[in-house]
Structures are given as C-alpha cells and as structure tokens.
Amino acid sequence: MKIFFSSRCLEYEFPGHPESPERVRISSEYLRGKGWPFADPSPCAEQQILAVHARRLVESVRTGGFYDPDTPALPGIYDYALLAAGSAVGAMECALGGEASFSLMRPPGHHAEKARSMGFCYFNNMAVAVAASLSRVERAAIVDIDCHHGNGTEDIVLGDRRVLFVSLHQSPLYPGTGLSSRQNCLNFPLSPGTDGPPYLAALRDALERVEEFDPGVVGVSAGFDTYRDDPLTAFALDLDDYREIGRMLGGLRRPLFSLLEGGYDRALPACIESYLEGMGG
C-alpha cells in the first residue's frame, strides 16, 4: 500500500471551514508514525482536467472568477487542485502497476461537476484519474463510499459505457441527488442512522454489480464522514466497519486506488488506517 501526500495541500484554508488542513495534517502524521509508506504526488496536466471539465470551469478556478461560500476562490487554489488531481492520477497508475494506493490529498473532488465547482470540490479528482486510466484499460469502476452522493462524478460519467459508478450515501443530505439509479450510475440511498449491518449489506450488493462489470481498475471515493461521530452527517459506522469495507473492496482482486473525500471528525486518522488494514495494506 502506498500513500500519496504532499504537505503543499496544507497551505490553504478558509477560517471555520470544515474541510480544513488540520484533518489531513493529523492523518498524515498519524499514518507516518505508524510506518505507512508515503510517496510524493505531481500536479496533473491541464489537458487531463479538460478531459472531464468544461474549459470555462477550468478558467474560473484559475482566475478566481466564481463565488461559492462552500467552495471559496482562495489564492492559489488552481495549483492546489491540480496537485490533488495529479495525486489521484498517480494513485491510479500505482494501482495499475500492481500496488494498491491511497491519495491523502485535498481539495476533495466528487462534488465537482463537468461545468461547476461545488461542495468543497474544484476539480473532480476521481473523474480525472478514471479518464486517464481508460487509455490503459477497457473498463473502470468507481465506488463512492462518502456519506454524500458523488453528484459531480455521476454528472461527468453518466452514459459512458466504459465506466460503472456506484454510490452509497445518506438521503436526505446535501446535495440532494442520487435518489435513483440511471444508466451506468447505480445509487444506494440509505437512511440517516444507518449503521454497520445494513451498510455492509448494501455494499455487498454494490460490489456484486462491480464484479459483473469486470473492470480493469477500481477507484474508491473514500469519504469517512460515514463515521458515527462525524459532525456533518448522520451515519453510524465504526472502525471495525471500515476494516470490513476495506476487506470487501480488496476482495474484488482488481487494481485498486482510493482518494480521500470527506471525513471531519478527529477520528479520521484511525478510520483511514482501519480501512487500509482491511484492504491488506
């Protein structure tokens, strides 16, 4: 297991914003202290962003020409977003090279739509990595386990027969999408208060669909805001559940990479470690 991380992603912040550098800083320090191997990511090329996003979105992030209180136009955010997307591509390439990987970077990505940044997300890191993978594999699957629906990822990959998108998420909850399945996008909305047994049962069903699809690579949008004490959500998973989620995903026996999405409780480092341990890292 290789963890992609750069301390550059700690350089930006917006006071009071839940997607803070602290959540990633404590996670990187904890995992380093436990001896997990780290690798440095590189920024992706703008052309890789343009493969999944409209040029007007890319220009708005570059120039700061947009307004969203959840996704502020911070100084240098274009470069930080390029680095997070590049880390996702590096994690994908590492997986195709035979080693599972985890990108511990910010900003996250799964809410960023083709032509709109939103929900703490500027560029869709997962969509960028999967688009890059399709020059090397015929099919790719995305498993989104963040508590919020990955509306941006669905917006980008909807109708692409080469990609299967499955999402397990709380409903009702921001952004209010993912209530039903459409074409190649399979949604599993779950009620507030969902804990381990029903969640894992839904994941088992989702992964059966992934196995039927027979992808050459699997990307996981790994949000840990499903944790029982997360301040923004209302699921009730615990550390043992994350270990089992990792085990189930590892059981797909496919090239596998994971990207950090949400997770806002101080237990985030332990949640990530349980997930990686379950995967066999």
Task: Give a structural overview.
This protein is α/β, with parallel strands linked by helices. The chain has one domain: Arginase, Chain A. 37% of the residues lie in helices and 14% in strands. The protein has nine helices and eight strands. It has helices at 21-33, 46-50, 55-63, 77-96, 125-133, 151-157, 196-213, 239-250, 268-278; strands at 2-4, 38-39, 101-103, 140-144, 163-170, 185-190, 217-222, 256-260.
Distinctive features:
globular; 14% strand; 281 residues; Arginase, Chain A; eight-stranded parallel beta sheet
Brief sketch in words of this structure:
The protein is of the alpha/beta class and 281 residues long. 37% of the residues lie in helices and 14% in strands. The protein is built from nine helices and eight strands.
Topology, element by element:
Elements (H helix, E strand, L loop, with lengths): L1 E3 L16 H13 L4 E2 L6 H5 L4 H9 L13 H20 L4 E3 L21 H9 L6 E5 L6 H7 L5 E8 L14 E6 L5 H18 L3 E6 L16 H12 L5 E5 L7 H11 L3
Helix pairs in contact: 1-9, 4-5, 7-8, 8-9
**What is the chain-wise order of helices and strands?**
EHEHHHEHEHEEHEHEH
Number of strands: 8
Would you give the CATH topology?
Answer: Arginase, Chain A
Q: Which spans have pLDDT < 50 for at least 5 consecutive residues?
A: none
